[in-house]
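Handout, page 2. Input:
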Amino acid sequence: MSQPITTGQIKNVHIRYYATACDELGIPYFLDLKTRRLHLKTKNGAAVFCYKASTPLNRQAAVTVSKNKLEVHRLLEPLNIPVPKQIRVKNIQKDLISFFAQNKNIVVKPADSHGGKGVTVLPEVDNLEAAYFRAHRESPIVLAETYVVGENYRFLVLDNEVLAISLRRPPTIIGDGITDIQTLFADLNMENKTQGLPQVPDSEYTWGIITAQGFDKSSILPIGKSIFLRLTANLSLGGTVDDVTETCDQSYKEIAIKVTKVLGLRFAGIDIIAEDLTEPNKAVFVIEANAAPGMRIHYKTEKGAQRNVAKIIMSAIYEL
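Output:
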């Protein structure tokens, strides 16, 4: 029998969405709160489970490959799937500094982390070494790639269908001509906490981004002036989300579906940077793939529909 679902019982947000979907579909399950696993039997009697954001929909080999951003790049590039120029950084002087000299605007990141951990966007020449070690703390393999301009989108793909597309924006604060940045920052985090959303890290890295835009803690932003608190759009670091599924041209959906197939996945979150999804033939780049995509961005939208994707996913799991 299903256990009653309350926020206090289920700490992991992904399992909470999946458990709620089971209740909506009438699928019996067992919830192990200690291990954060949701156990159920498929309609054919097979015992399966979900763990945090991971589901039994993908094969382990495909999951392993998709976690490695270097391997994903190696698979996609020969197929003419648009990806940023990328190198593996083995030596800071020979690789990273040389790549920076050639491209200027770059991103330094670990090969196999998630949620924006260890990523440095647009480092300057004097902090390339720090960017390298920041990434190296998350992974033994460090990558550098060209920074591509555009909006940040997450395509949620299941088999041959895009279930949802989320436009992800970095956390920002907007000036009122009166309040200093430190207070605006604190107010934003207080609002996020009230809404059950992740807070923006109050860290040296965050303040470095603010400083790079010409401001400090005591600065008063003019009315309507906005600044970034982070350069990545991860919801786990305070980013915001709009649903844009209905306005996306089909050609971009086909790219996300193709990437999912190439990686051997059934279910994936494909991250794409694009100039304009509403019209075909615009600049677009595939950044990475996630075999255990988070659910929260499809339920915590500021604009656009909130999509009950967990129900569709759980239906697919039940059919295994």
